[in-house]
């Protein structure tokens, strides 16, 4: 796993210096490491949408001489991985003539989502979540942004976070105030950004603005080299694999929920007091229906 990790880090660190074609190949390799282990170089290049010569130039750029040497590292990584739920899901997919097509599709969806969540709680991402909590706890203000399909994950974190902390800012741009909500952001603050391809322009702009103001960013995204994750302080890369036509944000939502739970667990008596006070306020407004 060590040599594979070195190659992965080299692809990420050198990404901005690569040509657009090599960036395209690097992004595909970073997002689909198993494909490197299982495909020929020509097949991998076709899947990435680049000519084989681009893969060769990319390998040379990161100091790898041959395709076999490159693929060996990915094959070693693959042998170390447990059996994938996603693979099982593919095996259980039915044909259009299968009488149990709908049941098999739902089983496939369930297995894929379980695999997405399982990968989100790998040792690497768990360490990243713990690191993220430390940064959140020490921030002056925490700005949370996630537009489009990522909005539910951003909103849920912001809503739950503000039950026990008063420094959360949900950047949602209501009434055209998107830019206004970022006024005053700086190096003592923190931005949490959620997004997956296709990336929403407002989210990317918010992250770029935060970086320009020297505000550190925690990115929950689908790739190490996504526009919101490339220069992030902490990257929590989650899968968005889906059996539907639309990508899944289940793993991203799970990570956001986990961050809230960690922060509450680490918040001690003060966090409990604030949650109790928030519940009293909700009761005063008769917020919840009671049967």
UniProtKB/TrEMBL annotation:
It holds the Pfam family SIS. GO terms for molecular function: carbohydrate derivative binding; DNA binding; DNA-binding transcription factor activity. Residues 5-81 form the HTH rpiR-type domain. CDD domains: SIS_RpiR. InterPro entries: Homeodomain-like_sf, HTH_RpiR, RpiR-like, RpiR-like_SIS, SIS_dom, SIS_dom_sf, WH-like_DNA-bd_sf. Residues 132-274 form the SIS domain. Residues 81-100 are annotated as: Disordered. Keywords: DNA-binding, Transcription, Transcription regulation. GO terms for biological process: carbohydrate derivative metabolic process. Residues 88-100 have a biased composition (Basic and acidic residues). PANTHER family: GLUCOKINASE, RPIR-FAMILY TRANSCRIPTIONAL REGULATOR. This is Transcriptional regulator. It comes from Thalassospira profundimaris.
């Amino acid at each position: 796993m060590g040599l594979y990790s070195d190659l992965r880090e080299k692809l990420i660190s050198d990404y901005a210096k690569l040509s657009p074609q090599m960036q395209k190949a690097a992004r595909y390799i970073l997002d689909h490491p198993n494909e490197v282990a299982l495909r020929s170089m020509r097949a991998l290049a076709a899947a990435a949408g680049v000519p084989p010569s681009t893969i060769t130039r990319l390998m040379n750029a990161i100091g790898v001489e041959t395709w076999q040497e490159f693929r060996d590292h990915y094959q070693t990584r693959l042998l170390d991985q447990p059996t994938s739920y996603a693979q099982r899901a593919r095996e259980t997919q039915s044909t259009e003539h299968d009488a149990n097509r709908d049941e098999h599709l739902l089983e496939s969806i369930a297995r894929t989502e379980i695999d997405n969540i399982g990968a989100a709680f790998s040792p690497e991402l768990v360490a990243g979540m713990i690191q993220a909590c430390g940064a959140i706890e020490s921030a002056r203000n925490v700005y949370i942004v996630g537009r489009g399909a990522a909005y539910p994950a951003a909103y849920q974190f912001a809503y739950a976070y503000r039950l026990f902390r008063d420094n959360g800012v949900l950047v949602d741009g209501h009434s055209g105030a998107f830019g206004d909500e970022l006024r005053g952001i700086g190096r003592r603050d923190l931005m949490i950004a959620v997004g997956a391809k296709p990336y929403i322009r407002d989210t990317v702009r918010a992250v770029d603005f935060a970086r320009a103001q020297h505000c550190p960013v925690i990115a929950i995204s689908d790739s190490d080299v996504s526009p919101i994750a490339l220069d992030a302080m902490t990257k929590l890369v989650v899968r968005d694999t889906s059996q539907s036509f639309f990508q899944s944000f289940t793993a991203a939502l799970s990570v956001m929920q986990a961050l809230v739970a960690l922060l509450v667990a680490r918040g001690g008596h003060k966090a409990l007091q604030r949650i109790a006070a928030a519940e009293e306020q909700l009761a005063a407004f008769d917020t919840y229906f009671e049967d």
